[in-house]
C-alpha cells in the first residue's frame, strides 16, 4: 500500500511574446506530480511536463564517508542517470548545475557531517529536461523533509530565429531554436538561483526571457502549493 | 524592463509575511515567513506601519514563543523550513506557547530526550555502538544500565535490540544514549527480549499512535494479548503468542497510516470473528 498521490493540473501562462503550436494563452505544458512513490528512499517524487518525465529520490541526512564530510554543513550529492547508456559529460554538467541550485536553498548547516543524496532518473525526454529535473528534485527534497529556506523551480525558454520566445519548448523546438536558456528561480522573491544558456541572444532578449520565466514560475509554485495541500489534506 | 519591475512588485505583494495565527492548521511551505501575534499591530490596515501612540511606552509585553520542529527564527519572524501543517499549543504558565510544523517524514534525526529502539552494531572497549536510524551510530556506555557496575557487566551482544533515551543529541556531537533515567532506574528501558518482530514505519505514524487520545492501541490490545515497544525513530517491536498473530499485528500497524477509522474497525471486527 503506498501513500502515492497524483495531482494533475493544466497550467496556462500569459507571456508577452509567445507563439507556437500550443495556441494562444497557453505557454507551459501539462504538469503532473506524484510524491512518496518509492519505498526505499526517504523522499521521492515524479514530475511530468508534457512528455518529459523525471523520477527523483532523496536520501538524507545520512552517513557520509570521512573523505567527503564537511565539518560545518551537509554534503549534497546529485546523481543523474540518463534513460539509456552510461552517464557522460553532459550528465555531469547537469548534476553540477542541480547541485549548486540545491545547495543555495537547502539549510545544510543544520546537519553537519551528513550527506544528502539526490538521485534523478530520466524516464522520458521530450524537451526542457533540466527544468523538469529541477522541479522533481525540489518536490523530492520537500517529501524527504530536508530543511530548506525556500522552494525552487526550473523554467526553460527558447528563442527561435525570428526572435519569438517559447516557454517550456519541446525537443523539436529546442533543436530548431537559435538559443535555449534554462533558469532556476526561488519561491520567496523569484530571484535567480541558476542560469544556463546555449546559443546566440542579445542582452535585451535575456532580460525578456528572464521576465517571462519569472511569470511562468508563479504558476509552477502555485501548482506545488496545490499539490502539497492535496497531499496533506488526505491525512 | 518596466514590465519586469512591475511584475516583481506584484510578487513582493503576494509574498508578504502572514500572521501565524491566521495559518494555524493549514499547510505551510518552506520559505514562508510568519508574524507572531505581538507583531501584527505594526502591519495593520494602514499597511504603512501606523500604530496608535501609547502613553506608557513600556507596556508592550514581550512573550517568549518556542520555535518547534520545522520553524527557524529569522529576525523577529518565523521562517518555515519544512512543508506541513502549522500547529500551536497554548502554554500552561506564562509565555507565548509553542509553534511547530507537523510534517510527514521517514528519516529520523536524534533529539535529546527521545526514547528510541536501537540495534547494537559493535562493541568497542567500554561502549556499544547502536544504530538508531540517524546519520551516525549512537554510543551507549556499558555502565548506563540498571544495576551495572564495572564487575557486573550487562549481557548485551551484537545484534540485540535496545530501548533507551538520548542524553546528548545535537548536530555537532555524536549522539549518546542511556538505558536508565535520571534516578538510576531502568523504567522499561534496556535490552528488548527474545523473539518478536521489529519493523519500520514513518515518524508521523509513531506520533499518531503515541498520542493520548489514540484508540488504535486499545483496539489492538483487545484483539490479542501482546507486548509492544514504540521507538520515536520510526521502529516498532511487537510480540504476540504465535508468529501468525505477530505478523497480523505488524501488518495492521503498518496499514494504519493509510486507513480511515471505518476501514480499521471493519478489519478489526473481521479479525475478531476469525
From TrEMBL, chain A:
<dbReference type="Pfam" id="PF01138">
    <property type="entry name" value="RNase_PH"/>
</dbReference>
<dbReference type="GO" id="GO:0034475">
    <property type="term" value="P:U4 snRNA 3'-end processing"/>
</dbReference>
<dbReference type="GO" id="GO:0071051">
    <property type="term" value="P:poly(A)-dependent snoRNA 3'-end processing"/>
</dbReference>
<dbReference type="InterPro" id="IPR020568">
    <property type="entry name" value="Ribosomal_Su5_D2-typ_SF"/>
</dbReference>
<dbReference type="InterPro" id="IPR015847">
    <property type="entry name" value="ExoRNase_PH_dom2"/>
</dbReference>
<feature type="region of interest" description="Disordered">
    <location>
        <begin position="1"/>
        <end position="24"/>
    </location>
</feature>
<comment type="similarity">
    <text>Belongs to the RNase PH family.</text>
</comment>
<keyword id="KW-0271">Exosome</keyword>
<dbReference type="GO" id="GO:0000791">
    <property type="term" value="C:euchromatin"/>
</dbReference>
<keyword id="KW-0597">Phosphoprotein</keyword>
<dbReference type="InterPro" id="IPR001247">
    <property type="entry name" value="ExoRNase_PH_dom1"/>
</dbReference>
<keyword id="KW-0698">rRNA processing</keyword>
<keyword id="KW-0963">Cytoplasm</keyword>
<dbReference type="GO" id="GO:0000177">
    <property type="term" value="C:cytoplasmic exosome (RNase complex)"/>
</dbReference>
<dbReference type="GO" id="GO:0003677">
    <property type="term" value="F:DNA binding"/>
</dbReference>
<comment type="subunit">
    <text>Homodimer. Component of the RNA exosome core complex (Exo-9), composed of EXOSC1, EXOSC2, EXOSC3, EXOSC4, EXOSC5, EXOSC6, EXOSC7, EXOSC8 and EXOSC9; within the complex interacts with EXOSC3, EXOSC8, and EXOSC9. The catalytically inactive RNA exosome core complex (Exo-9) associates with the catalytic subunit EXOSC10/RRP6. Exo-9 may associate with DIS3 to form the nucleolar exosome complex, or DIS3L to form the cytoplasmic exosome complex.</text>
</comment>
<dbReference type="InterPro" id="IPR036345">
    <property type="entry name" value="ExoRNase_PH_dom2_sf"/>
</dbReference>
<dbReference type="GO" id="GO:0051607">
    <property type="term" value="P:defense response to virus"/>
</dbReference>
<dbReference type="GO" id="GO:0000176">
    <property type="term" value="C:nuclear exosome (RNase complex)"/>
</dbReference>
<dbReference type="Pfam" id="PF03725">
    <property type="entry name" value="RNase_PH_C"/>
</dbReference>
<protein>
    <recommendedName>
        <fullName>Exosome complex component RRP46</fullName>
    </recommendedName>
</protein>
<keyword id="KW-0539">Nucleus</keyword>
Automatic annotation (TrEMBL), chain B:
<keyword id="KW-0271">Exosome</keyword>
<dbReference type="GO" id="GO:0071038">
    <property type="term" value="P:TRAMP-dependent tRNA surveillance pathway"/>
</dbReference>
<keyword id="KW-1017">Isopeptide bond</keyword>
<dbReference type="GO" id="GO:0005654">
    <property type="term" value="C:nucleoplasm"/>
</dbReference>
<comment type="subunit">
    <text>Component of the RNA exosome core complex (Exo-9), composed of EXOSC1, EXOSC2, EXOSC3, EXOSC4, EXOSC5, EXOSC6, EXOSC7, EXOSC8 and EXOSC9; within the complex interacts with EXOSC5 and EXOSC9. The catalytically inactive RNA exosome core complex (Exo-9) associates with the catalytic subunit EXOSC10/RRP6. Exo-9 may associate with DIS3 to form the nucleolar exosome complex, or DIS3L to form the cytoplasmic exosome complex. Exo-9 is formed by a hexameric base ring consisting of the heterodimers EXOSC4-EXOSC9, EXOSC5-EXOSC8 and EXOSC6-EXOSC7, and a cap ring consisting of EXOSC1, EXOSC2 and EXOSC3.</text>
</comment>
<dbReference type="InterPro" id="IPR012340">
    <property type="entry name" value="NA-bd_OB-fold"/>
</dbReference>
<dbReference type="GO" id="GO:0000467">
    <property type="term" value="P:exonucleolytic trimming to generate mature 3'-end of 5.8S rRNA from tricistronic rRNA transcript (SSU-rRNA, 5.8S rRNA, LSU-rRNA)"/>
</dbReference>
<keyword id="KW-0698">rRNA processing</keyword>
<dbReference type="Pfam" id="PF15985">
    <property type="entry name" value="KH_6"/>
</dbReference>
<feature type="domain" description="Exosome complex component RRP40 N-terminal">
    <location>
        <begin position="26"/>
        <end position="104"/>
    </location>
</feature>
<feature type="region of interest" description="Disordered">
    <location>
        <begin position="35"/>
        <end position="54"/>
    </location>
</feature>
<keyword id="KW-0007">Acetylation</keyword>
<dbReference type="GO" id="GO:0000176">
    <property type="term" value="C:nuclear exosome (RNase complex)"/>
</dbReference>
<dbReference type="GO" id="GO:0045006">
    <property type="term" value="P:DNA deamination"/>
</dbReference>
<dbReference type="InterPro" id="IPR048541">
    <property type="entry name" value="RRP40_N"/>
</dbReference>
<keyword id="KW-0832">Ubl conjugation</keyword>
<dbReference type="GO" id="GO:0005730">
    <property type="term" value="C:nucleolus"/>
</dbReference>
<dbReference type="InterPro" id="IPR036612">
    <property type="entry name" value="KH_dom_type_1_sf"/>
</dbReference>
<dbReference type="InterPro" id="IPR037319">
    <property type="entry name" value="Rrp40_S1"/>
</dbReference>
<dbReference type="InterPro" id="IPR004088">
    <property type="entry name" value="KH_dom_type_1"/>
</dbReference>
<dbReference type="GO" id="GO:0071035">
    <property type="term" value="P:nuclear polyadenylation-dependent rRNA catabolic process"/>
</dbReference>
<dbReference type="GO" id="GO:0000791">
    <property type="term" value="C:euchromatin"/>
</dbReference>
Amino acid at each position: 500500500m503506498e501513500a502515492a498521490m497524483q495531482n494533475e493540473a493544466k497550467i496556462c501562462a500569459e507571456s508577452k511574446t509567445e507563439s507556437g503550436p500550443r495556441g494562444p494563452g497557453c505557454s507551459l505544458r501539462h504538469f503532473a506530480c506524484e510524491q512518496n512513490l518509492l519505498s526505499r528512499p526517504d523522499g521521492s517524487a515524479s514530475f511530468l511536463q508534457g512528455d518529459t518525465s523525471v523520477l527523483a529520490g532523496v536520501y538524507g541526512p545520512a552517513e557520509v564517508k570521512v573523505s567527503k564530510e564537511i565539518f560545518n554543513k551537509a554534503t549534497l550529492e546529485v546523481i543523474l542517470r540518463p534513460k539509456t547508456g552510461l552517464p557522460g559529460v553532459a550528465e555531469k554538467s547537469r548534476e553540477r548545475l542541480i547541485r549548486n541550485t540545491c545547495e543555495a536553498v537547502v539549510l545544510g548547516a543544520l546537519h553537519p557531517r551528513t550527506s544528502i543524496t539526490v538521485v534523478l532518473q530520466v524516464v522520458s525526454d521530450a524537451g526542457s529536461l533540466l527544468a523538469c529535473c529541477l522541479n522533481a528534485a525540489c518536490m523530492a527534497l520537500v517529501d524527504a523533509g530536508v530543511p530548506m529556506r525556500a522552494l525552487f523551480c526550473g523554467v526553460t525558454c527558447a528563442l527561435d530565429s525570428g526572435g519569438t520566445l517559447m516557454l517550456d519548448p519541446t525537443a523539436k523546438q529546442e533543436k530548431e531554436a537559435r538559443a535555449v536558456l534554462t533558469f532556476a528561480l526561488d519561491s520567496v522573491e523569484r530571484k535567480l538561483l541558476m542560469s544556463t544558456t546555449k546559443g546566440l541572444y542579445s542582452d535585451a532578449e535575456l532580460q525578456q526571457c528572464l521576465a517571462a520565466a519569472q511569470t511562468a514560475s508563479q504558476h509552477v509554485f502555485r501548482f506545488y502549493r496545490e499539490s502539497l495541500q492535496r497531499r496533506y489534506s488526505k491525512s | 524592463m518596466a514590465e519586469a519591475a512591475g511584475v516583481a512588485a506584484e510578487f513582493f505583494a503576494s509574498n508578504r509575511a502572514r500572521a501565524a495565527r491566521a495559518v494555524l492548521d493549514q499547510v505551510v511551505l518552506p520559505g514562508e515567513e510568519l508574524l507572531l501575534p505581538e507583531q501584527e499591530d505594526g502591519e495593520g490596515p494602514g499597511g504603512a506601519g501606523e500604530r496608535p501612540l501609547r502613553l506608557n511606552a513600556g507596556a508592550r509585553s514581550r512573550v517568549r514563543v518556542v520555535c518547534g520542529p520545522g520553524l527557524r527564527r529569522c529576525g523577529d519572524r518565523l521562517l518555515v523550513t519544512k512543508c506541513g501543517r502549522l500547529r500551536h499549543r497554548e502554554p500552561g504558565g506564562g509565555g507565548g506557547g509553542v509553534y511547530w510544523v507537523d510534517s510527514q517524514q521517514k528519516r529520523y534525526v536524534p533529539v535529546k530526550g527521545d526514547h528510541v529502539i536501537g540495534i547494537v552494531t559493535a562493541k568497542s572497549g567500554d561502549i556499544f555502538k547502536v544504530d538508531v536510524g540517524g546519520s551516525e551510530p549512537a554510543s551507549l556506555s556499558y555502565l548506563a544500565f540498571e544495576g551495572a557496575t564495572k564487575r557486573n557487566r550487562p549481557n548485551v551482544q551484537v545484534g540485540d535490540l535496545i530501548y533507551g533515551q538520548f542524553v546528548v543529541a545535537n548536530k555537532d556531537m555524536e549522539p549518546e544514549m542511556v538505558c536508565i533515567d535520571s534516578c538510576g532506574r531502568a523504567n522499561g528501558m534496556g535490552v528488548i527480549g527474545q523473539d518478536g518482530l521489529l519493523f519500520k514505519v514513518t515518524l508521523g505514524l509513531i506520533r499518531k499512535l503515541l498520542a493520548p487520545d489514540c484508540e488504535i492501541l486499545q483496539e489492538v490490545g483487545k484483539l490479542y494479548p501482546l507486548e509492544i515497544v514504540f521507538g520515536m525513530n520510526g521502529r516498532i517491536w511487537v510480540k504476540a503468542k504465535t508468529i501468525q498473530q505477530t505478523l497480523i499485528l505488524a501488518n495492521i500497524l503498518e496499514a494504519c497510516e493509510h486507513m480511515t477509522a471505518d476501514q480499521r474497525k471493519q478489519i478489526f471486527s473481521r479479525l475478531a470473528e476469525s
